[in-house]
Amino acid sequence: MTYDWAVVWENAALLWKGTQVTILLAAMTMAIAVPGGIVLALMRLSSIRVLSIASASFVEFFRNLPLILVIYTAYYVLPVATGLRLSPIATAIVALSLNVSAYNGETFRAGIASIRHGQSEAGYALGMSRFRVMIEVVLPQAVRRVLPVLASTWVSLFKDTSLVSVISVGDLAFESMRVRSQTFRVLEMLTAMAIIYWMLGYPQAKLVDWINSRYRVSE
Amino acid sequence: MIEPRKTGPAVSEQIPVVAYRNVKKMFGAFAALAGVSMEVREGEVVCLIGPSGSGKSTLLRCTNGLELIDSGEIVLDGARMPQDWSGMRKLRQRMGMVFQNFELFPHKTALGNVMTGPITVLKQPRKMAERKAIELLTKVGLADKAASYPAQLSGGQQQRVAIARALAMDPEIMLFDEPTSALDPETIGEVLNVMKQLAEEGMTMVVVTHEMTFAKRVGDWIVVMDRGIIVEQGSPDRIFDAPTKERTRDFFSHLGWSA
């Protein structure tokens, strides 16, 4: 078997475009799923039962479905059900955001619950409202505490974005596979794809390790 | 360690800052407060003493509404305190509270902790809050620690920052909930001295404490509690030198305190 690595260089522009889409997908998803997760956590911890149940249902629903099923469903069912016609990229971001928001919701909930009640009382004793205490006292500490978990979620998400290639979003996985099907250079393209994902993923994983050591809880 | 106070309070016939009238508080079937009546006058240091679980801390926490009472009333400056969360919030701004475990905000510097109340609750301009905060940190002897985070401070230093944080709200009354119970013995003195200084400046204070020397020398009025009621109350000399109730004497003997 002979290898022809030239195919990788010839399609470098395409791979670069795919890489950009992959980064965009992960960044957009996290930009939605972090606030989304905070809102879900606040709803879950709310004393208003309806909000709490709605949040719990959302989290348990999306956390326990395979991501690829959510992606397919968003692609095929969402337009029919809602009449909303989204581009494949937007559809992908919706599907990824639903999934990652659910995970982040649980993460933030655990983070908020881990802040001891005395901290809130110190805020109340100064005359702060419940909202103020949450914004000023509890959330800043909770976010720091869950930062390592969020970072791990980000690294998983970065790789999981490859699943959206099934709805022909032109991410790195999709473009690599397209080149493969046109040139029949399977091994070369898989190798190129692996190297790009790895080179992007490894520094991120190292960054997570660093964040882990930097933000270790100290009281 | 704690010298007697230099100045006494201006005890007068004025209306009390806080008055408790037959205050009751249940935790399930347990009566944490079973009918407590007492008064705190302006400039007075009232020390609540008694065995653990006697209701001292509960009484303090009811004073600023961290716990709501079940019956009776608490009167602040002649006005009955509403027993609901939002009404209580306004009143809390007028009372400073110091906790046993300091409860400084770990993500803020000492300065940030002291500025938090004035900025977020009183909506003071940052510059003004900062000037006041530095002044207060200087007062508690920690001007050089303004940029330090709580984790970088000793327990005694943290508690002094916590006192400054409470003072930043310009409270009419300061509530201390066992402020030295979580401290190493060698840092207790620095906190008690700051409290004594406050007392000498005429701050009205309610102090839950196990520091009998402090209560005797700095307190103006001693309240002995046990099982949710006030066993007896009186001047420090009266309570410490001539307790009339058996339970007070029992408590003192458990502490190894000889009258």
Account of the protein in words:
The complex is a heterodimer of chains A (219) and B (259). Helices cover 81% and strands 0% of the residues of chain A. Chain A is mostly helical. In chain A, helix 2 (12-45) runs antiparallel to helix 8 (172-183) and helix 8 (172-183) packs antiparallel against helix 9 (186-214). With 259 residues, chain B is an alpha/beta fold. In chain B, 36% of the residues lie in helices and 23% in strands. Chain B has helices spanning 56-63, 85-92, 110-120, 126-139, 155-167, 185-200, 212-218, 236-241, 246-255, and strands spanning 18-27, 30-40, 45-49, 71-76, 79-80, 95-98, 173-177, 204-208, 221-226, 229-234. Chain B is globular and about 55 Å long. The mean pLDDT of chain B is 92. The interface between A and B is medium-sized, with 18 and 25 residues.
Produce the secondary structure layout.
The complex is a heterodimer of chains A (219) and B (259).
Chain A (H helix, E strand, L loop, with lengths): L5 H5 L1 H34 L3 H15 L3 H16 L5 H26 L3 H9 L4 H31 L11 H12 L2 H29 L5
Helix pairs in contact in A: 2-3, 2-5, 2-8, 3-5, 4-5, 5-7, 6-7, 7-9, 8-9
Chain B lengths: L17 E10 L2 E11 L4 E5 L6 H8 L7 E6 L2 E2 L4 H8 L2 E4 L11 H11 L5 H14 L15 H13 L5 E5 L7 H16 L3 E5 L3 H7 L2 E6 L2 E6 L1 H6 L4 H10 L4
Parallel strand pairs in B: 3-8, 3-9, 6-7, 7-8
Antiparallel strand pairs in B: 1-2, 1-4, 4-5, 9-10
